[in-house]
Design a protein that fits this description.
about 325 residues, mainly beta, Immunoglobulin-like, 2 domains, four-stranded antiparallel sheet, three-stranded antiparallel sheet, 4 helices, about 10% helix, about 35% strand
């Protein structure tokens, strides 16, 4: 009995001096790949842990990311963490789920040679039209009105209409036959019937009509709030292409949430192809100073997004917001 007791004590002492320790009730080796903190349709907020005693001199920590299960430095992409906190935790935001549907990653520490944690696999979640928190005053929808994925264009609508049409002219516009024959949303008699409305009624808001709840088109102020952060360090604006659809992916770095705004082009007299794949046109709910036009936001690759005003009969896409 005593021999067995001393043998067990010796084993316990050896374990206490091994390369493992208890951190937050989890047993960790010198480098450990943790569960991601956030997974969206395209992004993964990877998380790892490293023994701080290893973080000396030029030692780096981060992740190997790959579409292949072996996820090695030779076959994957090395993404270095900017910092390791006082608990040994480090995070990196990566993207690529939308391209392949599955991503593999593993934590590493490199002090001249790689020490690797276990490989974790992340699958893209099923598409769910929902509200995305970008740290702004409103939440933005994950896809365009009428779209079945974040990167599809969705439908094109004239301002104040909710009919998906093939052609867009004053001749088939619901609220006026010309710029000087407006039936609604007008504050100047020379342009038609005066009602002094400057904001789209919810009854004529396609976002509310299609998605109900508290969804609606964004106001000019809410669009400017989003664009204000184009050069903000807390946001990343990237021109990307998914399934042949190009546009801006906007990521809020502090929680990893993102939306993709496809460059859907604009509706013309006979179709909705003007600028498709090159420029995005999206309606806002605010009327312009000239009531035959309404606020919209536009963007194209390599240029800062901007707010502009276009004639209301034109066919643009819509991205909804909610409180």
């Amino acid at each position: 009995m005593r021999r067995t007791y001393f043998l067990m004590m010796a084993i316990l002492m050896l374990l206490s001096f091994s390369g493992c320790e208890k951190i937050n009730n989890l047993t960790k080796d010198v480098i450990t790949t943790l569960e991601p903190t956030n997974v969206t349709w395209d992004d993964v907020f990877m998380q790892g842990w490293v023994d701080l005693s290893l973080m000396k001199g030029s030692t780096t920590a981060g992740f190997i990311v790959s579409f292949l299960p072996d996820c090695s430095p030779e076959t994957g992409t090395v993404e270095m963490a900017h910092a390791v906190n006082e608990k040994g935790i480090f995070t990196v935001l990566t993207s690529g789920l939308a391209e392949n549907g599955t991503l593999y990653y593993r934590a590493y520490v490199n002090d001249g040679k790689y020490r690797l944690g276990d490989v974790r696999m992340v699958k893209a979640p099923a598409y769910d039209f929902g509200a995305v928190d970008l740290g702004l005053s409103v939440k933005w929808a994950s896809a365009n009105v009428g779209a079945d994925s974040p990167y599809n264009y969705g439908s094109f609508y004239a301002w104040g209409e909710y009919t998906d049409k093939l052609g867009f002219t004053w001749g088939n516009y619901k609220w006026g036959t010309s710029a000087y024959d407006l039936k609604k949303y007008n504050g100047q008699s020379k342009y038609g019937v005066v009602d002094n409305k400057t904001q789209l009624d919810l009854d004529n808001d396609v976002a509310r009509f299609k998605h109900l709840g508290n969804w609606r088109m964004p106001t000019e102020t809410e669009v400017k709030e989003l664009f204000y952060h184009f050069k903000d360090g807390g946001y990343k604006w990237e021109w990307k292409t998914y399934n042949g659809h190009s546009g801006y992916k906007v990521t809020f770095k502090y929680n990893g949430n993102s939306i993709f705004l496809p460059a859907s082009g604009a509706g013309t007299g006979t179709s909705a192809t003007e600028g498709k794949g090159e420029k995005g046109y999206y309606w806002a709910s605010t009327l312009s100073g000239a009531p035959y036009a309404a606020c919209c936001f536009t963007f194209e690759n390599g240029k800062e997004p901007e707010v502009s005003y276009e004639e209301r009969y034109r066919g643009f896409t819509v991205r909804a917001v909610t409180e």
